[in-house]
Amino acid sequence: MRRIRLTIAYDGTEFHGWQVQPGLATIQQHLEEIFADLEHKPVHVAGSGRTDAGVHALAQIAAVSIQNPLPLYNLRKVLNRSLPPGIRILACEEVQPEFHPRFDATGKTYEYRIWRKEVLSPFEQRYLHHHPYPMSDEKFCSAARLFVGDHNFTAFAASDDRYAQSHNMVRRIYFSEATREGGLLIYRVKGKGFLKHMVRNIAGTLIEAAKSNVSEDQIRWMLTAPRGVKAVPTAPAKGLFLIQVHY
Q1: Burial of 106 (0-12, 13-18, 19+ CB in 10 A)
Q2: Is pTM beyond 0.90 here?
Q3: In 145-246, which ranges are continuous DSSP H helix?
Q4: Is residue 101 part of a domain?
Q5: 246 pLDDT more than 60
Q6: Number of domains comprising the chain
Q7: Which run of H or E residues covers position 178?
Q8: Do 39 and 114 have their domain in common?
Q9: Which domain holds residue 183?
Q10: How far is CA 159 from CA 173, 197, 238, in A?
Q11: Of residues 52, 160, 161, 217, which has the active-site annotation?
């Protein structure tokens, strides 16, 4: 049995996220169908984590155990020939049998991309959140730094059955900064782990902070808030990219 690590890029626009969902097109579903054909039996493809519907990835990591002896170069060609054009395998490599893309990861880096100018090119509208309205980049950048450290992100997590009353909602953020490059405002965050919709909720909060609708003191309070408190509206999925999974 071979353990294969996959590096995957995808445009999330046409997919309902990473995880298999009955009757819906997902990244994991497409991969598992192809590997099932290769192995002539059901095959589980494990990912480093879930991405939501509409979220993109530059380098998602997954792993699969197979018996097929195809050389790695040929395996990548077979996968890319069979996958829809919005998903591409960038690399295949053999790893130790115990490798797990989620449990072995030490962190992830995400970017949230906002277009600030009045007109957004139709060729970019799938990948940027268009927000041309008045707001302070300085306040956005200042508020972004508040998220560094260990915090209770309950207020920044979407409801999920996994988050029982005893579930630990504390997450460690190593890096949280924003930069402006022409018309593009980029928020980049690196953390040990993330809750459902956490980055999109942070991005939405930063936009409200930049519009002076949320103060830095209110953000500090949200990071200690009890269950039931929710951050401001979630930023759209299309602006979010999984940039790197760290090992």
Answers
A1: exposed
A2: yes
A3: 198-210, 216-222
A4: no
A5: yes
A6: 2
A7: strand 170-181
A8: no
A9: 107-246
A10: 21, 9, 20
A11: 52
